[in-house]
Amino acid sequence: MESRSIDANTSVFRSLDWITILLYLVLVIAGAVSIYAASYDFDRASMFDFEEFSGKQFLWIGLSIFIGCAILLSDYRIYETYAYPVYAVVLLVMVITIFVAPDIKGSRSWLVLGPVSLQPAEFGKFATALALAKLFNSYNFNLNQKLSNYFRAFLIILLPVILILLQHETGSALVYISLFFVLYREGMSGLVLFSALCAITYFVVAVKYVEPLLLGLPAGEFAVFLLIMTVFVSMLLLYCKDLIMARNVLIGYTAAGIIAGALSFFGVNVPGMWFFLGVILASVLYVSLAMYRHKIERYVVTIVFAAASVMFLFSVNYVFGNVLEPYQQMRIKVALGIEDDLKGFGYNVNQSKIAIGSGGITGKGFLNGTQTKLKYVPEQHTDFIFCTIGEEEGYVGSCAVLLAFLALILRIIHIAERQRTPFGRVYAYCVASYLIFHLCINIGMVIGLCPVIGIPLPFFSYGGSALWGFTILLFILLRIDASRKERRD
Amino acid sequence: MGKDYTLEKRKYIIGGFITIVVAIFMVRLFHLQVSDGSYKENAESNAFFRKVLYPSRGLVYDRNGRLVVLNQPEYDVMLIPKDVGQEFDTLGLCEVLNITKEDLMQKWADMKNPRKNPGYSAYTPQKLMSHLSQEDYGRLQEKLYLFPGFYVQKRNVREYATHAAANILGNIREVNAKDVENDRYYRSGDYTGDLGVEKSYEKELRGVKGVEILMKDALGRIKGKYEDGIHDVIPTAGRDLTLGIDMDLQEYGEQLMQGKIGAIVAIEPQTGEILCMVSSPTYDPSLLVGSERGKNYADLVRDTYKPLYDRALQGMYPPGSTFKPTQGLIFLQEGTITPSTLYPCYRGYVNGLRVGCHAHGSPIALKPAIATSCNAYFCWGLKNYIDKRGTTPTNQLEKWKNYMVEMGYGYKLGVDLPSESRGFIPNPEFYSKSFRGSNWSANSIISIAIGQGEVLATPLQIANLASTIANRGWYITPHVVKEVSDTVIDKRFTEKRTPSIKKEYYEMIAEGMRGAVTGGTCRLANLPGLEVCGKTGTAQNPHGKDHSAFMGFAPMNDPKIAVAVYVENAGFGATYGVPIGSLIIEKYLNGSIAPERKYLEERMITSNTIISSGVKKH
Known about the structure:
The complex is a heterodimer.
Chain A: H1 2-11, H2 18-39, H3 53-73, H4 77-81, H5 83-100, E1 111-113, E2 116-118, H6 120-136, H7 147-166, H8 170-174, H9 180-185, H10 190-208, E3 213-214, E4 217-218, H11 219-238, H12 243-265, H13 272-290, H14 296-323, H15 326-335, H16 345-357, H17 370-373, H18 385-417, H19 422-446, H20 464-482
Antiparallel strand pairs in A: 1-2, 3-4
Chain B: H1 5-8, H2 10-35, H3 38-47, E1 48-53, E2 60-61, E3 67-79, H4 81-84, H5 90-97, H6 101-112, E4 126-132, H7 134-143, E5 150-160, H8 166-169, E6 171-174, H9 177-182, E7 191-194, H10 196-200, H11 202-206, E8 210-216, E9 222-225, E10 241-243, H12 247-256, E11 262-268, E12 273-280, H13 293-302, H14 311-314, H15 324-333, E13 348-350, E14 354-356, H16 366-372, H17 375-386, H18 393-406, H19 428-434, H20 459-470, E15 475-476, E16 481-484, E17 496-497, H21 503-519, E18 533-539, E19 547-554, E20 561-567, H22 573-590, H23 598-606
Parallel strand pairs in B: 2-10
Antiparallel strand pairs in B: 1-8, 2-3, 3-4, 3-5, 6-7, 8-9, 10-16, 11-12, 11-20, 13-14, 15-17, 18-19, 19-20
């Protein structure tokens, strides 16, 4: 035993996934250089001055590498063994944070410990991942076996979300939504992701296109009704695999469409809302009467999906107008291009687009970016760090960074699938999911495709907590992965 | 525990999702960075502050090298509000700037008022006070360390080493919206020439602005030079002008014209350089400099004697008898008369209508007709010219007009100053129209022969005629600028223009004009040793007393100066025109006035024709 554990420790470095480590180092160093560029002042600056952002970031990087090495040298079994206690401790710290944290721009998420400020929410990610992995590693655990398994998984995900929301850090809380990818991989129905995709599409289309009016309906809602009908027919065809019923419904829709078109062409006022409701209701009734001959379950899902879609559409305007805060509405409008608001909420995004756009193919060169240097882009060393890369390194540099992230994520998915235990696999998928969410939202926000949600770009954005959070997340994965050969038993 | 291989396939969905998202991002980045150029332009205007470096404006010298217009520094009190902060020693500042606390508070409020100062920003330089005097500047400069955030900006304005020649020199003013629109060189707040050579030589005088490319951050703060200034452009100073004007003569002319309305134009015949160009009443050019410019300008505009109106260039007057030499030249060239042709004068031209004349011998030949300014002679000449056999009056008048235009009448001469008038020379169509189709005859237009009727000329055109006769048949377009430093003046100011009239006819006219001085209407101009040739003019006009005019040159056979004098409503040409013209000639050629003629100088300087003009209202 004695000699084996020494072997294990030395062999860790032999069985490490060096590709991941290489990608990690590339991203972290590129990040530090970008922070140096972003906070570079033309008058004074040294890359390693600890008074500067870049100097501090080098300090954080040094500590991260130290933490990473410590994790690699630790015993892999402690993560599985202490997954729940770690989760509990982190949650407790988050609860304490709500009460003791100072109010910084409306959020109470920073824990001040002497000279260092930490954001416990960043450490919630790996704790939650560990807890979720531990849950799935339970003996004979199967997500679809009973409903209570779903509840347990949701509970693990939702507890940190609630605590982070109480800290008024909406962006960080939304990150946990990405764990649905993990549930999907572990057996949750693909319909859930499909529903989410439909919901986002319907929402964007309905909110963005208000004009012109078609059959008395705003163009967006009109289009969503058509989409709902298309999805209904597609689900009958692809999900229920019922060619005949799909064909009949399609013929019915087409006929109704021709009649409505002809009527309105001859000047008859067709109320669009009632027309669509009537047609969809008729098709749903037809399917429910005809389905008794078949495997019922999938038809029910299809019908419920159509009905839910219609209800979702009716609730969109209410939710957008009454539930969301005005600033959230504005951010969504800016992202959807409905409003520019260049002085207010749109300022960041517009300046960020200008900075990136001015980079051209090859960029202006390191430290030559004028937009980011001269502080036109707010938060440029944190959430908007990608602007500096876009401006100074151009299209080539931006794409290189994106591809490095893509490579890292795909590599992690690859690592996940080679794990021998659900624990390792689920944990790895958690890491991949977090990275996917951060990348999509952060880059999407900077290039004006997503609403502004304040979450950092992993490894790039300035800040110790986020960097340590992601480093711990990644190195625990590497440690678990390195042990896959040790578990011969 | 075994793997569920159907679930393992889901890795492709998750991996595919992020791959598609990255692909979308790359397409979007391609659009932003490569295919859409608008973001690059936006970035330019965002980050660069182009600080204009003003060149010093060209200086102006007179023909003798006397510095006439120079630059004087003027100081503006500038400050950057952010650097000044909330509190500073207001009382101390008031003391240094020599203003009251209320004044300072008012200026402070104006500076911050977005309506009066739309470019206000707490981070950029703001102007608190302009037109600081040299002493105040000195005091402030000394105490400046007490007032952080304040600094003094130097600007150049004009200074005049003379009180004369405002109409020639012009002045500078801030550009208006139209200037900026017409010429991309200007930015709001720049200066441009207004009137005089400041306007007509604006492009030479202004030089070329330089630019310093500075970087500014999102708050408008300057962050140093862009790429250490390699893209900066050093300003090029404006070119200096040397005028053909003799400032002493100009000042003397203005002195002589005190209390009179009118103009003097003197030209050097060989070069076409204008020696002096007086318009009266005039004003001190220094009035249009500094903080009082706006008020003074408004006063000048409101003045009923119109001092801003340059009578030498813009005034269109009946040339009167100064016109007769041109008629003699045309009649000789066209063979209407010979030097020995005699015309009767029965105290005027009597031929169905009557044009009066004064007492002299009759019949009379060309030279004595010029010397005595016989109206009848030129009326008969025009009558015979128009009624020439074998052609029509229309053709003859058309030809007449062409001769006049060749001699510089009826169109702008093209002097290098703004707002020249063209005068007026009628042509056949004009008379067809004004006689409404009914036939006009020589008699109906006869008064043009003696420079009355429809004919109008500027004093400059009259002086140019004197110059042409002095040269015996050619002239160079009159101009005030003799030299522009480091370049050559426009070709049109060095080319001879030669009317198609023989030189010998000019000689006869010159002899006639010499006769006018020795024994005719211009005897007061008979200066010993100078051989002055002259011609008086007494022009009837609808405003009041006759205009008094003189046209002449000297010396007769080596002409150095040609001059025209026009005094509104002053009576006979001999009363004001001749004395003033002869004094100008004497002053220019001799440098001083002979003691026996001092009384004449005294009388001209002190007399006031405005009071006795007979003109009731302007």
